[in-house]
Every structure is written in C-alpha cells, then in structure tokens.
Amino acid sequence: MIKKLLFILISTNLAFAQLYNADATLLHTQPARTIKKGQMSVSSNMNFYTKVGDFIGSSEPVDFETVNYWLVAGNAVFGYGIHENYDVHVGLRVYQDTHQKNEFNLPDDIFLTFRAGNFKFGQNYFRQAFMLSTRIPVGEVHNYPFAEYASGAFEYGLMYAASFYLDPYLPNRSYNMHLNMGWWNHNELGQKYKFSDGQNLKAKVNSSDFRLALASVFPTPLFDFRVELSGILYLQRPDEFIYSAEEFAILSPSLRFKPLNNLSIDLGTDFLISPEREWTTATIPIPSTSLDLPASYPKWKIYMGANYALNLAGFGGKSEIDYEQTEAQQRIDTFETIVKEREKAETIQEELENLKKIRKEAEDEIEELKKILDE
Fold first, then answer.
1. Of 269, 312, 266, 311, which Cα lies nearest the Cα of 43?
2. Strand partners of residue 256
3. 215 has pLDDT over 90
4. Closest Cα partner for 152 from 197, 117, 100?
5. Which residues of 317-348 are buried (b: 16+ CB within 10 A; e: fewer)?
6. pLDDT tens-digit profile of 121-174?
7. What share of the chain is helix, strand, coil (3-state, %, to 5)?
8. Cα–Cα distance measured from residue 317 to residue 106, given in angstroms and rounded to the nearest whole number
9. Residues 109/125, Cβ–Cβ less than 8 Å
10. DSSP string across 296-348
11. Rounded to whole angstroms, what are the CA distances from 179 to 149, 160, 265?
C-alpha cells in the first residue's frame, strides 16, 4: 500500500515522457530537434489499461473469482541540453504493474539516451538526429504480458530521426512531421525466466527488432493536435516462452495543452490496429487461455501527464558565439511573443466588430418596432 501511494505522489508531481523517446515531444516518435543548450526538461507520464477478465468456457471452477486486470506504468525522464546539437536523457520507469508474484516493480528499469541532432538541411526546413539508447535492468520481474518486451538484460539500440517544419524559424508554431527508424537489441541470450507454475527457462537467442514511427503535429497557440503511427518488426524473434513476442502497429492520436511557455499537459490514446496474434507457444501460464483477456497487446491504452522546461543556462564564461546565439534566440522568442499578442489583439478586434454589428442590428430592429408602434 505504501508503495502504491508513493507511486501516485511521484506520478502527479513529475511531468510527462515516453521512455523510448529522448524527451516528451510526442508519445512514441522522437523529433530531430535537440533541447536548447542549458535547458533541462523534467518529464513523466502514466499510462494504463484495464479489463475485467471473465472465465472462458462452461466448466467454471467453484472458487473462481473475476479478475480485474490493471496494467499501469509510471515514467519519469530528465533531459539536459549540452550543446546546440547534443543532449542527454535519463529515464526511470518509476512503477510497472506486472501482475506477477511481487505484484509490481518499484522501481522498474532505467533508460539512458544520448542524442546528436538538430542538423539542418533542405534550406533549414528539415533536421536530422542520431540516438543511442540503453535499458538497464533494475526491476525485480521482467517478461510480463500485455506490455512491450522487457528482457531483464542490458538492452540497447540505435535510432535515426528526421523532421520537417513548415516554418524553419518558428518550428513550434508551424505544422511539422517526423520520421523515426531504429534497431533494438534485447540481448537476452542466457537470461533465466521464472514462471508462476515453477518452470525455469533460459533464453536461447538474442532477439532484435526494427522500429518505425511517423508523426504529424498541427499546432495552435493553446493546443497541439498530434497523430502518430508506430510499430515494430522482429529481425530475430524471441523464444517461444516470451509473452510479448509479437509484432504490432499502433495508431496514437493525442492532444497537448499549453497554458504556459514552460508547461504543457498531454492526453493521448493508443489503438492497436494490427491483427491480434499470439506467438507464445510454450506451455507456460498464459492469462488469456482461461480469462477473457487480450492474446498479446491491449486494444487500447490511455496516456496522461505534463511537461516542464527549466532554463539552467548562466551568463558567466560564455564565448562571443554563445552570446550571439543567445541573443538571436531571444529575438526569435520576442518575435514569437509579439506574434501571439498580435493574434490576441486581432481576436479582440474581431469580437469588437461583431459586437458593433450586433448593436447596429439591434438598433435597426428597435427603429422598426418604433415605426410599427407609431402606426
């Protein structure tokens, strides 16, 4: 109970992130832009899926109780901009409900990501980045069902990202698209797995997969409307006793609310659009064989969280180039603020014009009524 309360406190006080990403710009897709030099991002999210697992079949056990499955994960990521083209991120899966004997992992695994990016081309409309990521096993239990495969070994991968911005000078305010292609090695050869029926099995292969993600972002001053398509294809399938051994494709619409310049709130949903399949063929305990639960991945999953951006850059010891870059960025930020205020003023002016029009129509109606009364 204390662990669950601690998880809730952490999840509600940190900001949003998805751990395979370097930062929390999107749910599953990573942009090629890096964090600004000297800026720190503090991010977290909570995602969940729930379903009541009724018994499958006619011969229900006498002592059977309906199982309420809750799949919950809480994530936290801290990122820092080292240079205009480099940033580093440390991610912690704070909590992972595994429905295993230990009930949940607290904490779960640690993720490290180094990104070299923000390299412009195509008249600055395009940017590209390269990322190196690792997953360090810390959680007590791995290889759990209904979630992405966690091997319990030291995992690592490489990813390439390309981004297009309709306005290269104000990228956050213009339509943008993103493409990710990556390779991930689960590195589980020789890893031992324990199951609830007492079996102990050892991995015979190092499984690896190819990852692909596409995203479109339609920004407005207060909201960003996003849609993503992501999935994996196994280059080397895991062993037959791995629960999450299936390939998948996910459609993820999401919404970002931006009440402040350094604060945003996210809400999104995953929809499994690939056919449901089950590649786990070993005689191990599989929940969906006796309960009305997904065969592999959930049909949907809800994401929610928030994002903070902290400027830690100082002014001491800066070179002339750093000063010029800072001043240029400040001019861009100032211009963006002016554009926002101008849009607000235009909106107010439109409202005033509408009020004047309504008043004029009301005055005309009053004059017509006066004429009718006089007659």
1. 266
2. 224, 266
3. yes
4. 100
5. eeeeeeeeebeeeeeeeeeeeeeeeeeeeeee
6. 999 999 999 999 999 998 877 887 778 888 889 999 999 999 999 988 888 888
7. 20, 40, 40
8. 41
9. no
10. SS-SEEEEEEEEEEEE---STT--HHHHHHHHHHHHHHHHHHHHHHHHHHHHH
11. 23, 8, 23
Query: Which pTM value belongs to this model?
Result: 0.76
One-letter amino acid for residue 97 of the chain: D
Asked if 24 and 18 count as a contact pair (C-beta separation under 8 A), the reply is: yes
Q: Which of 189, 333, 212, 347 is nearest to 274 (CA)?
A: 212
Total residues found in the chain within this entry:
375
Structure tokens at 21: 């990403």
Tokens of 193: 């797995």
The CA dihedral of 149, 212, 23, 318, to the nearest 10 degrees, is: 130
Q: What is the pLDDT of residues 330-352, one digit of tens each?
A: 666 776 677 666 767 777 777 77
